[in-house]
Structure formats: C-alpha cells, structure tokens
Write a structure and sequence with these properties.
heterodimer, A: alpha/beta, Rossmann fold, five-stranded parallel beta sheet, 26 helices, 11% strand, B: mainly alpha, elongated
Chain lengths: 656, 342
Amino acid sequence: MASIRARQTESINRMLDLNRASGADYGAAWQEPWKVLIYDRACQDVISPLLRVGDLRNRGITLHLLIDSEREAVPDVPAIYFVMPTAENVAKIGDDCARRLYDAYHVNFAAPVSRELLEELAAVTLRAEAVSQVSQVVDQYLGYVSLEDELVDLNVRGSFRRLNDPAASDASIETLLDSIATAIFSVLATLGVVPIIRCPRGGAAQMVADRLARRLRDALRSGAPSFADGSGSSAAFQRPVLVLAERSADMAVVLQHPWSYRALCHDLLGMRLNRLQCADSAAADDIAGAAGAPNGGKRITHAYNLEPSDFFWRAQAASPFPAVAEAVDAAIQAYRVQVEAINAGNANGAAGGAAGRAACASGGGGSCDDLGESTRQLQAAMSALPELQERKRVIDMHTNIATALLHKIKMTGLDSFVSAEEAVLARSLSAADRATLEELVTTGAAGTAEDRVRLLSLYFLLSSPPDAELARLTAALRAQGADVRPLAYLRTMAAFRTRVAMAASDGGKAKAAGGVMNSVFNFADKVGVGASTRSLTSTLAANVKQLLPAKRETILTRAVAAVLEAKPHADVDGYLTVDPRVSAEAHAADPSLARRGPFREALVFVIGGGSYLEYQNLLDYAAQAQGGGRRVLYGCTELLTGSELLAQLAQLGPAT
Amino acid sequence: MAARHREVAMCDRTGEFLAIAEGLARRIATRPGIVGPPRVRTRSDFTQMTAQIGADIYATTQKLDKLAQLAQSRSLFDDPTVEVNELTIIIKQDLSSLNAKLRDVQLAMREYRAQTGARGGGRQAESHTAHVVDALKLQLSTAAKGFQDVLQVRSNNIRVQMDRQKQFEGAGRPAAGAMGGTGAQCGGAGCGGGARGAPAPLFTPPRAPLPDEPAGRIVETVIDIGRLGGAAGAGGAFGAQQAQMQEMLPSNYLESRALAVESVQSTIVELGTIFQQLQSVVAEQQHLVERIDAQVDETVMTVDSTQRQLLRLYQTMSGNRLAMKMLAMVVAFMMTYGAFFA
C-alpha cells in the first residue's frame, strides 16, 4: 500500500491538472497550461508539507495566492480554488466572479460540500452572471495534513477543550464530531480502504465511529469508485483495523517532557507542519561580534523544513537528544572526509592533467589519454558537487537546530525534568527521587512555571499521591504565580473517571523496562554557549549524555497491539466493533459478524490531540512487533505540545 | 503507487451545481441564457503563443527521446547515422526557433501587461507572465541540456569507434603489405573496380552478417574484417579483395566519422549560446524549493515593516501638525490684531 503522503500528493497533482483522468493524453494538458491556484489557510496547511513552489510551477501553476489576500485580475487564466466548504469562501468566490478576476473557475472543496452551500455558490455566481465560467465543482477528500508516511494531522484545532467544555452547545459538538469524521473519512477515501472500526464505548470516539460507519456505508452503497475493492477480492482478507482512541485515556504522554529529537523540535522549537523557526545562533554570534550587532541585538531567525526525505532527520528523528548531538558531529566528520577525498582526487587529476598536456604538446601519443582522464575526474567532481552542497545544507541545518535545542535545554534545565519524570513513569520513586521532584516543583530554580505544572500533573496522574502532598505542592506552585487550573481540571476528571470505571485502573500498569535514572543533575557547571556551535558533543555535559529514557509502551500502543494481535486486554475487550461492510441492521442483529483480527495494519486516530511521543512509540512497536510486517498509521485531531494541552486544560478548569 | 490502476477519490458535483443554477435562473427568470453554453473564449496573443511554445517544446522533447534511443543503439544491421543526423538537424532547428519565439513572447508579454493594466490588473498579472516565461525557459533549457547530453554520448561513441579504427589500421596495414604486390596491383588494375565504382556502401559498415558474430557491434565487426583479411591474406584472390576493402574503408569511414564529430561538436557549441541566453533562469531556481507558507511569513514581515514606516510617517506628520497649529494661531492672532487694533 502506498503511503498516505504519496496518495495525497497524487490526488493534489490530479486536482492541479484540472481533474483530468490520469490516463489522458499529455498533449491535452497544453490546452490550458497555465493556472492560478487559490487556497485558504486550512488548505495551505494541506499543501505546504507536500509540494514546494517548484512542484507547483512544474504543474503549470504560475501564481499561488491565499483566498483572503489582495488579489488582482489575471486575464485569460483559469483559477483553481482549493478551499474548505465554508460560507466565507463561497462568498469570496462569488466576489471574484463578479470582479471578473479570472477566465474560468475550477472550484475544489477539500471536504464534501453541503447542498445549502452549493446552492449558495450557484446563487452568487448567478448574480455575477458567471455560471458558465464555473468549469468544475468537485469534492476532494483532502481535508487533512499528511506530515509523514505514517503521520496524519486532521487539522481540527482545540479539539480537547471543545469536546470537554461543559458550556459547549450540542450543535457545536455535533459540528466538531462531523468535521473529525469527515477528515478520517477523507483519509480512508484517499487510501481506498474500508477498515473494521474498534473504539471504546460511550464517548466521543464512539460518536465519531458511528458517523464514520454511516458515511462508509453510504459510500459503499452508492458505489464510490475510491472504495472499489470488492469484498470478495483478496484485499478483503487484509483489511486494516481502525482504532479510535480518546485523549482523556492517557493525558500523561502529552504532558510529559520529551527527550527525542523530533518531539523536542515540536515541544521546544514549536515545529508545525514539518517546519520550525529558530535563531541561527552561530550567525547571530558572529554578526554580533564582527559588526557590533547592527540589528540592535535582534537574532537572525531561520525557517527550516524537516522533510521525510532528509537523510539525517529520517535516521535521527526518534533518537534521544545526546545521540543526535553525536550524530551531528559524525555527519560533519563524514562530510569533511568526503570533501577531502574529492579535493585530493582533483589535485592528482590536475597534476596528471598538466603533465599530460605537456606530453601531449611535445608529441607523445599515449599521455593524451591522461588529459581525458583528468577531465573526467573534474566532471565527476562537478557532478558530485550539488549532492555535497545539499548534504552540507542538511548538516548545517541540523547543527543549528541541535544548537538551539541545547540552548533551550540548558536555559530551562529540561533534562532535570526529564529525569524526574522518568522516575515517575517508571513507577519506582525512591525517597531521593521524591525529594528532587519536590525541589523542582517548589523552588522554581529550573524551568518555567509551565514545566513545573507539567511535572506535577504527571506525578498526580501516574503516582496518585496523597491529597495533602498534592495540595501542598499545588499551593507552592500557586505561590510562584503558576496557573494551576489544569491541575484542578485533571483532578475533577480523575475523580469522575474513578467513579465511572473502577475496573480500567489497573489493566495496563506500565512495566518499566529500564533501570531507574540517576537523577542527580548538576547544572552549576554550565558550558559556554559560544563554543557550542562548533562541536555539540563536547559541550554536552557528561551527565546529560547518560540520559537515555527507557522504552516503555504507552497506553495507546498497548491497546493497538492488543487489537492487532487479537490478544486479551482489559480495556480493548470492551471495545465496540463495527464493520462498515456489514449493514447496520445485520450488525445490530448479530454483533459477532464483524471480524476481530488479528490484523496486519492499523489506522489509529486519537480524538482530542496527539503527540509525537505517542506516534514514535507506535512506530517502535510496529517495527518490533512479533510476526513482523505490522503497519501503523497514526492520526490525531491535532499535534499538541505539553503547553498547548495545558492551555486547553486551563480553559476547562475552574475560573478562579 | 499500487500496481493496479486506482481511482483517485473525488466526487464531481459540477452537474449538481449547474442544475441548481439552472433552477435558480428559471425561478428568477431575469435574463434567459445566463446558464447557456460556455462563452467563446477570446485569448490574448500571449496566452496563445505560450501555449503553442509549450506544446512545441513537448514535441521536441519527444523527438529528443527518439534521438537518445538512436544514439545508443549501435546495431550492425541498422546503422542510424543518417537518421541521427537528420534528427539532430531537426532538433537543432526546433530549439533555435523556440528560442527565437521566446524572444517574441517577451514582446507579447508587454502587450498583455498593458492590456491587463487597462483592465485593472497589475502586479499579479505581471508575475504571472514572468512565471510563464520562466517556466518555458526552464523547459527549453532542460530540453537543450538533454540534447547536449545525447550529443555528448554520440560524439563519445564515434570517438571510440575511431580509436578502434586506428588500432585496426595499425594492425591491418602490415598484413596487407606482407601479401605482396598482388592485392595492390589487382586494385590498381581494376579487379577491385567494382568496389571502387560503388564506394557508397562502404561508407557504412558492411551489412552482411559475419558468420561468427552476427549480432556484434559495428566497431568489433570492423576489426573482425581486419583480422579476417589478415588471416586470409595468404589465401589468394578473396583475401586480396578483403585487403583492398580495408584500405578503402578506413579512409572513407574515418572521413565521415570526423565530419560527424565535427558537426556534433559544432552543434554543442551552438547550444552553448542558447544556454547563455537562458542562464538567468537557472540562477534563480533557488526559490523554487520554498514552501508556499514561506511567503506568508515574509508577507507578515513586510506588513510589519510597512506598519513601522507608516507609524514613523504618522509621527512626523503629527509633529508637522503641531507646527501647523502654531502657524494657524499666529495667523489668527495677526488677523484679529489687524482687524481690531490696526
């Protein structure tokens, strides 16, 4: 099965070719070779990680503009609209028609458009007398962001808060659930699979599952071509399973401080849509030193794209930070060796070439071949150059990112939090660990108030400390001016959950795989930042280096593993099973109709936000699963950093 | 992509849209025929020209593919020299005429911009045209680069053939000499006249398959003839004829090859000039690896700086306003003074 990224790119490319059949004559594309692409913010997020400006140009897109930017008339050119089906966008399209901005209008909605909006579109274009210029109105199933081959962001913001807000109206929750179901349906339509759905009963997940099953049944009944796999074909035996999970089942994994490269980039540097911005510390230092800070001390920020095609990113995204620092140094070394080899080769070639030229001129026959030889070497070097340049660019980028991360880690004392949380996660808190934890929370020496709230939340969620201790620590945090509303919300949530389901509490206690971390971290001996740009490993304090968190499976990974391998599991056994290929009535009559596994592929969607840590954990499981060949696709309504989740929790907490 | 053909997920609702529009139009019943057949599009010269050039470049690329195949095939039975030369000339003409057309397009572009300016268009129409021309230039330079590569391959092949030919010459001559005067005399006397009378077939390597190596490459076959000639040299009349063929073959063959190399090299040089004209395009390819949201960041920055400028302007303006106020007060004072006291 092709990856979701490849599939989505294929679909977008087809849209850019004005939805012509893929087998159509290429020459036909010359009828309308140049096009203007217009998209809204949400669709910009969809395209950004997949296609670069150059790719768009290759498809004949000469201009790409946001729908709410200032746009001018470009005569003679068809416009491709790629927008979400909203009333504002439809009104904008009507305006454009009225202003006669473009020659023809190809309207592509990223999600199925409702009848009312379609009528609205007809009305506005009719008013503009431009109906005949609307060449196409197409529903595309592309309203999600595929960030990596196994990672999908459903692009639904603030979902946890919106789902759990007691003040939210039923209608707004309905809309939210519908948009989540639409996005998941779009992923399935793009992949062309009809999975068997498993989800916990009685929550948002089940409501999404119901909506999804209804849509899938409708699509199958209407014979949608994208789900063309007949149930009798061999593909039916390898149907994937769709696991819908809820964020509230495991809050800790998002609040926890990460220590692997990709998750750190997300948490500390705010990576969004595979792109992050960080200060170019080396350049900033150099400029400040050389020119006396002409920018008034402003640091130069660089935007970096972290694509799955990046060799270093692919290899190191999951590695703990110290290993990444080592890998950066190793990559620099390897690069230097490569450059030197080429330089040496060229020097030899040049010398040989000079000798050959002399011999050639003096009439020696044989040495003329040397000239050709040296030319060939030079040509080889020239052709190797772009590749080397690209390598250098990638290494430079990661050096800068890693340096920025190191800088942040040192500023916030992140590793002390990571090690303290490690002890909490391992569920083997010694007295010394408790003391460190209390010190971290109460003294406020390291980290921000947010970091401390996250640590305490984690402690509360996993170790369920006595109320008195928790109250004391919370009070200390409040005294520091920290926002403790998230903690209050977590407490009410936990109380509610214990009342509702006592059974689920002990089902999946973590089995600590690794030893207890040595949590004594001394940050008195800080290393100079200026030197850190040169060699990362040398600046990493020796005790930071030993911090390699133990691998343990998250709650979600254990549930997914149980579903995939059809193993008994306290939570999963109670899961609802829905097979959209079996009609709802037949299902109601005999629930055992749905197959319960084992499966080879799982599509996992977390409703209420996910994290890179959880994603990585699933990937690790899929790579090591017994029997091999398991594939997992991880999707979530949005990728949350710890602080983002805290912000949502704070809004839910009591307004004190 | 999966091996089987897969429908891309989408749902065309144009029909539904048109039906709704039709219904609405009938209900309003203002002007019939709004939802009529699509209007006939009148297109500007610029659009037509660029579309034509694009199609031409595509056609040239297809020819180029064919040439690349020909240049690589060196089969014995079907020497493609003639075809290669023809195609080379055609493609060369195509490329230079396309290059000329691109220059014309720049003129049409100015016209188009003037026209859009009249219709309220501006910067965006301009960058649209610039991107169109860039895209065409890029396609043309890619095609030219491909052409250059093919020619390079071709000239290398010919050179290799010539080298082998030289070696064969060096080995073949003494053998012919050792045969004594018979061969040479015979040639001079006209027993080889048939061969000399029809030199054309000799330009191209022998078409008759040799028994031991029917599918061998031309170069190797030529050497085989040499060897055959040398070995059979003592064998009498047949050998003598072969020896003569050797004598004729290298000189003519070499000449034609040298010509071929020359023409190929001159074509490469001509291509160089096209490249120079297109160079600017290649230089500005850098921004094409940018993402579409990168522009937004830039826009935000530009907006920020614009705001700062405006703010500064406002401050100077308000400074001026103070001065203006004072001036107005002075004038007012003077007027009242003039009216009442003077």
